[in-house]
Amino acid sequence: MIRYVNVKSRMRNEFIDITEKVQEVITEEGMKSGVCYIYVPHTTAGITINEGADTSVQRDIQTALTKLVPFEADYSHREGNADAHIKSTLVGVSQSVFIDEGNLLLGTWQALYFCEFDGPRHRRVAIQLIKAVTPS
Amino acid sequence: MIRYVNVKSRMRNEFIDITEKVQEVITEEGMKSGVCYIYVPHTTAGITINEGADTSVQRDIQTALTKLVPFEADYSHREGNADAHIKSTLVGVSQSVFIDEGNLLLGTWQALYFCEFDGPRHRRVAIQLIKAVTPS
Amino acid sequence: MIRYVNVKSRMRNEFIDITEKVQEVITEEGMKSGVCYIYVPHTTAGITINEGADTSVQRDIQTALTKLVPFEADYSHREGNADAHIKSTLVGVSQSVFIDEGNLLLGTWQALYFCEFDGPRHRRVAIQLIKAVTPS
Fold this sequence. Notes:
3 copies of one chain form a homotrimer.
Chain A: E1 3-8, E2 14-17, H1 19-29, E3 34-39, E4 45-51, H2 56-68, H3 82-91, E5 94-100, E6 103-104, E7 110-116, E8 122-131
Antiparallel strand pairs in A: 1-8, 2-7, 3-5, 3-8, 4-7, 5-6
């Protein structure tokens, strides 16, 4: 019931469009309507929904996040990735998107982005689909 | 099954209380208990849950967001609304609220706010209700 | 159907690990697979999922949030806790975590943290479980 999508990041900070991979899971499961949950089981990554058409947007988001949470600061965590943990909390690790007629119901400009904050790494994203149940 | 609530913003940055409109959908659908999903299909807006009693709180949140993510900076996105995209990722585009005895189960001071970051615009918010199913 | 977990904070800013308490609810309800929703019905608190092994991470997140949103600034809200409201919107008040074979499906390093931003206070966290329903 829980499906996984593999993601491979190539940079320390990178947004990876996983919209198609998530849609494939919905299609394979044959889910027609309900809610699609996307969950990132990592503490130095996140998931966001934002513009997929112009890739400059994801760069601006990454730059803004790094400006707010610099790589180096007076952190107590000694593994050199405290910034990635903080970004993960700001962006969040889960999203809920609707499924309508077998498709992810995203807005015209929306895409689902896995947000890598401590790459390069092999990551995975968990997906669960819940069917809509009408009131009886 | 998916319902829409229309929202009309009048300013570039504006929080609009949509609690009553969401409650109307729950009442019309006759949903007694479960989860109410609120989804914003836009990339320059968001949704948050925060104090509804004192409107100064929403102004403080807007001011703080604009301080963190200024309207003008060295953005690569050329449409003049990179700040709005970044704020959308920080605030998020979906919320899940419980339904109990036919009502949104919000805390005493909580209200549901549509967050406009690139208005004025006509917007819409998607709503889906999932009925609670007890373990069998 | 909606369960509550009580949380008692001892400091103004404090992260409290509620993973075990949430797991207890799942075990008591006998839920084997589905989604566990955690909802904070407060406007000056939040919930995040982040590293549970090294407590320095939660301190770094708190410090970073306070740097981004200082306790004192030119806030219009007169109750002295505008910062806590803003942090609540940045971190969020709800999370969805998967349940697999009766257990919260967290990543290896993940823990569920109640985020107090205006303590010390007695707080509560609402929990609802939705069973996975396979497509028919």
